[in-house]
Amino acid sequence: MNLSVLLSVYNKENPSYLAKSLDSIFSQTLFPTEVILVKDGPLYNELDSVIDLYVSRYPNLKVFSLLTNQGLGKALNEGLKHCSYDIVARMDTDDIAKPDRFEKQLAVFEKYSDIDVVGAWIDEFEDDILEVKSVRKLPELPDDIRQFAKRRNPINHPVVMFRKSAVLAAGGYQHFPLFEDYYLWIRMLMNGAKFYNIQESLLYFRFSPEMFKRRGGWRYVISELHFLQKMRQMHFISFSEFMQNLFVRFSIRLIPNSLRAIIYTKLIR
User: Fold this and answer.
1) How far apart (Å, rounded) are the C-alpha atoms in residues 8 and 76?
2) pLDDT, tens only, 191-208
């Protein structure tokens, strides 16, 4: 099966991380047909130099530029326009794909023609992929994934592979600060798309203690409230589910960062 890989890079990212991410894409057991990289606004010289180097090495790496920083959702929508094939693998420019990631995910699409989204678990690390801090595990089957989505994001976005046609049928990525991917999955589920999660880790996800700070505070609380309200308006969750979510999520957002880190890495993985 032909495969497009979709990435977006912006000015604050690390050139070394980008190089490692691209290396992991181009050393897969199943080589991607094309790789679409969107520059989300102007980049500084070191990032451009890395991109130029890989373009010279790999003719199937295609780069498209936005004049100004638009944010991840809009950048990915722009990239989707340039994906030539229906099967698209997402990748973030600071993560590292395991060598057989594409092969294993494509095997699911080949076996099950009715599956639209294939996710997997991810290994979370800080500096060294040999020192995995936690594993983000998700349910496997479509019905379980739909139920899980009422409480938490059911797909690890950096390791997802999907049918472009199913994403576009649900309206593509839409602007929803902090929740662009989760919002997409809900709309796809409501549109009848079927999801599957491979029950093993296929990607090393880079994170830092700063991530837990970003997932707390009143700014995050307000964004999450708007998202829960949207889920309720869409009739994806009931009023009681809305209230349960409200209590659990807000409690986590407003506790000290050190406690939130323990909850994320130890209790809800």
Assistant:
1) 7
2) 999 999 999 999 999 987
Instruction: Say what the pTM is.
Output: 0.91
Pick from 207, 196, 19: nearest CA to 112: 196
Q: How many residues does the chain have?
A: 269
- Taking the C-alpha atoms of residue 192 and residue 11, their distance in angstroms, rounded to an integer, is 37
**CA 38/CA 73 separation, integer angstroms:** 11
Q: What is the DSSP string of the chain?
A: ---EEEEEE-TTS-HHHHHHHHHHHHT-SS--SEEEEEEES---HHHHHHHHHHHHH-TTEEEEEESS---HHHHHHHHHHH--SSEEEE--TT-EE-TTHHHHHHHHHHH-TT--EEEEEEEEESS-TTSEEEEE----SHHHHHHHHTTS--S-GGG-EEEHHHHHHTT-S---TT-HHHHHHHHHHHTT--EEEEEEEEEEEE--HHHHHHT-SHHHHHHHHHHHHHHHHTTSS-HHHHHHHHHHHHHHHTS-HHHHHHIIIII--
**Are 39 and 70 within 8 A, CB to CB?**
no
Compute and round to an integer the Cα radius of gyration of the chain.
Answer: 18
Which residues lie below 8 Å from residue 206, measured CB to CB, with a gap of 6+?
17, 94, 95, 96, 125, 126
Chain segment 51-84, per-residue pLDDT in tens: 999 999 999 999 999 999 999 999 999 999 999 9
Torsion 124-127-128-129 (CA) sign: positive
